[in-house]
Structure formats: C-alpha cells, structure tokens
Amino acid sequence: MVDVVILLDYWPSMFGVRTRIALEEKNIKFDYREQDLCNKSALLLEMNPVHKKIPVLIHNGKPVCESLIQVEYIDETWPMEYPLLPSDPYQRAHARFWGDFIDKMLPGLGKLMWGAKSVEQESGKKEFIDMLKTVEFELGDKTYFGGETFGYVDIALIGFYGWFDAFEKYGNFSIEAECPTIIAWAKRCVKRDSVAKSLPDSEKVIELIPELKKKKRVE
Amino acid sequence: MVDVVILLDYWPSMFGVRTRIALEEKNIKFDYREQDLCNKSALLLEMNPVHKKIPVLIHNGKPVCESLIQVEYIDETWPMEYPLLPSDPYQRAHARFWGDFIDKMLPGLGKLMWGAKSVEQESGKKEFIDMLKTVEFELGDKTYFGGETFGYVDIALIGFYGWFDAFEKYGNFSIEAECPTIIAWAKRCVKRDSVAKSLPDSEKVIELIPELKKKKRVE
Q: Could you tell me the residue ranges of all domains in chain B?
C-alpha cells in the first residue's frame, strides 16, 4: 500500500514546522495544504473536530493531531528511517520531559507577543527568558539535545526559531545576549536540509505580526 | 538487578494517582514517600530541579517527572505485564491525544477551585463541563477509553475522580447530571484494585480544600 500523507498546516506555525521536519527527516513525501485559519476548511474541521487547529497530519485518511504527538507517530510509523526518539525508555522519557517543557514556554510567549499591557509583555518576556535559560542549561555543551544526533527535542524547540526575530523585535531584547548557546545550536540545526526547508522566513513572520495582533484583539 | 522504585508523591494529587495506578497495574513494588509541599525535601529538589513538583518516579536512582510521561515510562520499562498503551502507532497517538486533552482541563479546574471571583469560578466550571462532555463523547458506549481494556486514557482521567466531589461542592453542580456516562465509567474503574488502592478519599480531599485555598492565596 502506498502511503498517502497530507499535512494541513499554516506557513508561520511553530508547531507545523515540527511535523514538516519530522516528515523530511524520514524522507516521507507529503501533500502540504496551506490552511486559511480565518475560514477553516471542511477538511480541517472534519479531521480535527476537537481543537479545529493546525497542524493535522492525515495518514491514509486518518488524522493525527498535536505536533509532538505527530512527531512520535511519524517516528513509530516509519521506524527504520532516521530515528527521532532514542530507543531506551529512560532517554525517551527524558526527551518527552523536555518536549513538554518547551511547550510550557507558550503562555509566556503569548503574553510577550499578544499581551494588552506592557507590564504583561514584560512578565511574559521574563518567563520566556528564564525558561529558555533552563533549556540552554539542559543543552549544555552537547551538539544537539540528545547528544550527537538531531532528534525529538531539537525538533520541538527549533519550531520556535523562525519566530525568534519577532520575539526580539516585539520584546525589545536579544535572545543571543541572553542565551548564546541556544543561538549557536539553532544555527547548527538550520544547516540540516529538513530544518532549512521547513522553517518560515523570519522577515515574513515579523511582517505578519501586526495582522495577527489585530486578529487576537478581535477574538 | 533488583529494581528499586521510589515514588515521591502527595496523597491528594490527581497526577500522583496516575503513576500509582500504572505501577499497581504492572505489579511493581514501590516505596511511596509522602512529601510535604510546604517544606520540600532535598530529595524532591534534587530529583525534579526544574519543576520541583510531585510526582517524581525514581527508578534505580534516576528520576522521571510528569505523570503521563511516567505512565509511558512504566509501560515501556515493564512491557510484559498488562500493557497500558496500545501497540498500534495510530491508536497510541489517539491515546496520547486524549491524555493531552485531559490535561488541558486543568486551567478551567484551576479557575473553578481557586478563582478569586465568582465570575471566574463560573467560567472555569463552564470550561470544565464543556471539556468533560467532549471526553464523554469520546468514551461513547465503550467500557473503557481504549475499548474493553483499562489503559492510558482511563488512568489519565481517573486521577481526577477523587476530586469530583470537591469540584461539585465548590462549583455547586452535579457532574453526574452533566456527564452520567463518565460517572458510570468511573464507577467501573474504581472496581479495579489498582484504582481503589490509589485514589484519595473524596471526603478527605473536600476537608483539605479550605487549607489549599489559603495556601493558593498566600502564593
């Protein structure tokens, strides 16, 4: 049976990037379908009726939702190509812990980017920097989070990298000044084809922010 | 090598319950160590330096944090005893999706239980009921979330059951009136030794709430 893989996604999504990278690492051809989030398609609503959000991975007609769950699904479905999670249960749990921790940075980032008041934005920025420093400490002097090979935790974090310039511009700070090791790591990651192909253009993300801010306010 | 398994936990924890049940289902003997969360032990701080929270599962000296990650770790480490997650990658992704969804009920429950204003409590209650109805729809007429066998999603949700009476009392509503199928499912789960042994006493949880409210306010 030939696999039919469809990805419902939206180009700036830091979550969609994770799934795109995982598919690229596994050399899986997929049909990328850009979604209009202001006018959600019948397919998106049918495939993710609970959250109605992208990314949705559709494999042979069946949907998988939530980006980190998609990355694990991709790893388990195509186990022979480039493993994304370690095989040892303890190391797997460790990777999942850091994937989960990275997702816990979102409330801070939400306040930083969409906060209505500057005091809220400042507190979001502080939360984000503190958490990114914790992630940086975990990386330490390793090449990638899992050691010498690019994998699950790298995929979880690099999704945010296309937004770093936007965070810096709207938060008025330098991530490199705060977390130089993270920036060096991100530059290594971007050398991989899977990442370079999947990340959104930082400039375009910055251009999009005013529009997104307007939409957030309407919501 | 004999496995040494320690669980740092706090008796009313809906998260700790998950890990206790998973260990019981696998027939793993463990050393339960009750933690004083107002005066955190050196062991807790050493084993979970990032979040400093219970439950922490310590297996042969190495910590695993976050309850659903612990459940997966337990399943992967002792795969021969009673499987908790399905073996099929698609069904595993489906179970993980619902585990994640159940954790997304927490902000609503937080507002319901610890909200400073009644408008906040009401909105938390509504969020919780809406989400629990979605979970109930997923359960449908199945015996357990995975079908005929008790597993990962059941463990994720039943952790909350010891708190249901407290939610009802403080939210002034009946979960059974809103979600009768969930209550019938919970009563089935409680017949399992692993669950009966692990759930906190509802009466004691209710008695504890004023003290917890006071602490939340101080924080």
A: 5-77, 89-218
Do B118 and B171 form a contact (C-beta atoms < 8 A)? no
Residues 6+ away with beta carbon under 8 Å from B214? none
Q: In chain A, what residues touch B66 (CB-CB under 8 Å)?
A: 96-97, 100
The kind and range of the H/E element at A184 are helix A180-190
Is B96 an 8 Å CB contact of chain A?
yes
Nearest CA in chain B to A61: B90
| Nearest CB neighbour to B72, from listed A65, A96, A101 | A96
User: Residue B147, by phi and psi: left (phi above 0), alpha (psi -120 to 50) or beta?
Assistant: left
What is the distance between the alpha carbons of residues B137 and B159, in angstroms, rounded to a whole number? 19
Two tokens, residue A188: 């290594």
Contact across the interface for A72 and B96, Cβ inside 8 Å: yes
Which residues of A are less than 8 Å from B101 in CB distance? 50
Chain A CA closest to residue B66: A97
pLDDT tens per residue, chain A (219 residues)?
A: 789 999 999 999 999 999 999 999 999 999 999 999 999 999 999 999 999 999 999 999 999 999 999 999 999 999 998 999 999 999 999 999 999 999 999 999 999 999 989 999 999 999 999 999 999 999 999 999 999 999 999 999 999 999 999 999 999 999 999 999 999 999 999 999 999 999 999 999 999 999 998 887 765
A92 reaches B (C-beta below 8 A): yes
Q: Which residues of B touch A64 (CB under 8 A)?
A: 90, 93-94, 97
Cα–Cα dist A99/A66, whole Å: 12
> How many other CB atoms sit within 10 Å of the CB of residue A218?
7
What CATH number does domain B89-218 carry, 1.20.1050.10, 3.40.50.2000, 3.30.360.10, 1.10.150.20?
1.20.1050.10
Spatial strand order of the sheet with A31-34 comes to A31-34, A5-9, A56-59, A62-65
The Cα–Cα gap between A109 and A123 comes to 10
Question: ω into residue B180 within 30 of 0, thus cis?
Answer: no
Looking at CATH, the fold of the domain delimited by B5-77 is given as Glutaredoxin (3.40.30)
At residue A127, φ and ψ (nearest 5 deg) are: -55, -45
d(CA B14, CA B158): 8
Give the torsion sign (CA, B126, B127, B128, B134). positive
